[in-house]
């Protein structure tokens, strides 16, 4: 049985392993410290899906005020599910939890950005759950 709960700093290793599955390697210590900061951050929420004691997925959500919406905007920053649990409903449970949390904060919108080309499965996942493409483009610069 899958249970979704709020993440804790002790989930850092499991989340780091899921990040590796997404192709994000990196310094283990820095990643663990960042996970700890994010799970404690007042404008962020991280939820993990567990099967017994094993973390099999997570979703990271952040909220911030946005003037053009005259209210809060929620953003799904990351969502990941272990390969063995994909297409079993775990991602949907995580997404529903994130949406419920955003609603509880009275967010006006929840957005997700497609992180990388080739992640068409994420586009299909979100589209199947009533997410629609907005007239926006994301530009960035590495600092």
Key descriptive features of the protein:
alpha+beta, Aminopeptidase, 5-stranded mixed beta sheet
Topology:
Layout: E1 2-6, H1 12-21, H2 28-40, E2 44-51, E3 54-66, E4 71-81, H3 90-104, E5 109-112, H4 120-127
Parallel strand pairs: 4-5
Antiparallel strand pairs: 1-2, 2-3, 3-4
Overview of the structural elements:
- It is a single chain.
- This protein has one domain (2-127): Aminopeptidase.
- Strand 3 (54-66) and strand 4 form a beta hairpin.
- The chain contains four helices and five strands; from the N terminus they run E-H-H-E-E-E-H-E-H.
- Helix 1 (12-21) crosses helix 2.
- It has 143 residues and is of the alpha+beta class.
- The mean pLDDT is 86.
- It starts with a strand and ends in a 16-residue tail after the last helix.
- It has a five-stranded mixed sheet with strand order 1-2-3-4-5, with helices on both faces.
Summarize the structure.
This protein has one domain: Gcn5-related N-acetyltransferase (GNAT) (Aminopeptidase), CATH 3.40.630. With 143 residues, the protein is an alpha+beta fold. The chain has a five-stranded mixed β-sheet, with helices on both faces.
Q: Output the CATH topology.
A: Aminopeptidase
CATH class label: Alpha Beta
Beta-strand residue fraction: 25-35%
What is the makeup of the main sheet? 5 strands, mixed
Shape: globular
Instruction: Give the CATH superfamily.
Output: Gcn5-related N-acetyltransferase (GNAT)
Strand order within the widest beta sheet: 1-2-3-4-5
Number of strands: 5
Please tally the helical runs, counting DSSP H or I stretches of 4 or more residues: 4
What is the gyration radius calculated from CA atoms?
15 Å
What CATH architecture would you give? 3-Layer(aba) Sandwich
- The overall number of domains is 1
Please tell me the overall pLDDT: 86
Approximately how much helix is present in the residues? 25-40%
Look at the helices and sheets and give the structural class. alpha+beta
Q: Point out poorly predicted stretches.
A: none
State the separation between the terminal residues, measured CA to CA: 42 Å
Order of helices and strands: EHHEEEHEH
